[in-house]
């Protein structure tokens, strides 16, 4: 269900929410699944701690197109990180102290300096420029490298690895396997280097620290954590920066509203996260027992695809849901999930998006799209949604 263009959602979302909120769908693999599009159904299921993604379950539907498996399909490589239960929560608690409001406030000046440097370089090269390539891609890579203690010289190696990890149909399995072997080997070497010479980064802290019970993460879990943070901290935020600016600049009044009142930036970021019509695939859950949702009962053995983006447009929850309202508050969107498995790094993503807007509003108030929004091309073949480029002038 591709969006109508870079900004507008596919009309099927509204039709399904109204007429068929529990829909039978065929995945790129050819397997059957159930698609949920109403807010109440989606929120309840993604917040339920009993169920994990399909990769861990033998009966779960395969997602990726033939010849290419996604991160949801790798049953041959079970995650060394517990995907549910007490073990999962212990792992999360070891990470969450790195994403507190206090840490984000301390990190904010560093992110702002990075963003300002990238804007300087973009301006020096002159308009028109691709905002995604100049700012949206490098900034999250720089930030996550900083967090993981990865050398600056290795930043550029992550893009291809990240793409293959999130492939839906773009890459063949041989390409995916080779890239993932390279990433795993790199991260294993990085973990060992940090073990020998710990720094002040997240991985060093995980290596030297322990959970409340005194247990430490093993090497495989440390490698998986580093890979997971790299993928989650890079690809999704890179694409969200591009989409955010396309949404704001496609309607000059929205951008001009922010320029006139930068105090709206925090609520604007939340509304942009809710309004995103090109988010990618969604979250999968494999049901090991029957579940009663507001829209009906899902039987055990179901692979459910939870469309948070469709749920975020549910007019039963959000007044005037199809309008971009930069002042919307409260905003109970579920872009980052809900419950005990919600996104660990959501505070970092919010901080990066806010800083991008703060820097651009201050530095380039005359920013504008260099092409009509209808000509912006979506990313294809990946689990995450985005735009191939965001041409701008100023």
Automatic annotation (TrEMBL):
PROSITE patterns: CYTOCHROME_P450. CDD domains: Cyp158A-like. InterPro entries: Cyt_P450 (IPR001128), Cyt_P450_B (IPR002397), Cyt_P450_CS (IPR017972), Cyt_P450_sf (IPR036396). Its cofactor is heme. Keywords: Heme, Iron, Metal-binding, Monooxygenase, Oxidoreductase. GO terms for molecular function: heme binding; iron ion binding; monooxygenase activity; oxidoreductase activity, acting on paired donors, with incorporation or reduction of molecular oxygen. Transmembrane segments: none annotated. Belongs to the cytochrome P450 family. This is Cytochrome P450. It comes from Kribbella sandramycini. The lineage of its organism: Bacteria, Bacillati, Actinomycetota, Actinomycetes, Propionibacteriales.
């Amino acid at each position: 269900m591709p969006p109508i263009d870079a900004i507008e959602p596919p009309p099927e979302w509204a039709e399904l929410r109204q007429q068929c909120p529990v829909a039978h769908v065929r995945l790129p693999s050819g397997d059957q699944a159930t698609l949920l599009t109403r807010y109440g159904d989606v929120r309840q299921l993604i917040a339920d701690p009993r169920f994990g993604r399909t990769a861990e379950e033998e009966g779960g539907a395969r997602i990726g197109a033939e010849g290419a498996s996604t991160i949801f399909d790798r049953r041959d490589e079970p995650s060394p990180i517990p995907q549910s239960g007490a073990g999962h929560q212990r792992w999360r608690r070891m990470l969450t102290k790195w994403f507190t409001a206090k840490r984000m406030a301390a990190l904010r000046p560093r992110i702002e300096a990075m963003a300002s440097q990238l804007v300087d370089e973009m301006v020096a090269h002159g308009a028109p420029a691709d905002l995604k390539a100049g700012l949206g891609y490098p900034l999250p890579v720089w930030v996550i490298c900083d967090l993981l203690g990865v050398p600056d010289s290795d930043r550029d190696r992550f893009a291809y690895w990240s793409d293959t990890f999130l492939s839906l149909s773009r890459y063949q399995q041989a390409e995916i396997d080779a890239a993932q072997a390279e990433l795993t080997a790199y991260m294993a070497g990085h973990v060992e280097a940090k073990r020998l010479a710990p720094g002040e980064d997240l991985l060093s802290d995980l290596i030297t620290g322990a959970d409340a019970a005194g247990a430490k993460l093993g090497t495989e879990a440390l490698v998986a954590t580093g890979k997971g943070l790299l993928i989650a901290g890079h690809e999704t935020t890179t694409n969200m920066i591009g989409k955010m600016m396309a949404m704001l600049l496609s309607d000059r009044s929205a951008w001009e509203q922010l320029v006139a009142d930068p105090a709206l930036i925090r609520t604007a970021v939340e509304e942009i996260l809710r309004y995103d019509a090109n988010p990618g695939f969604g979250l999968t859950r494999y049901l090991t027992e029957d579940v009663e949702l507001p829209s009906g009962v899902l039987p055990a053995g179901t692979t459910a695809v939870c469309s948070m983006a469709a749920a975020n447009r549910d007019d039963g929850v959000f007044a005037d849901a199809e309008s971009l309202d930069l002042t919307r508050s409260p905003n109970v969107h579920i872009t980052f999930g809900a419950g005990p498995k919600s996104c660990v790094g959501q505070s970092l993503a919010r901080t990066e998006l806010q800083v991008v807007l703060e820097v651009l509003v201050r530095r380039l108030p005359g920013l504008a799209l260099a092409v009509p929004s209808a000509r912006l091309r979506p990313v294809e073949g990946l689990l995450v949604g985005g735009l191939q480029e965001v041409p701008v002038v100023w």
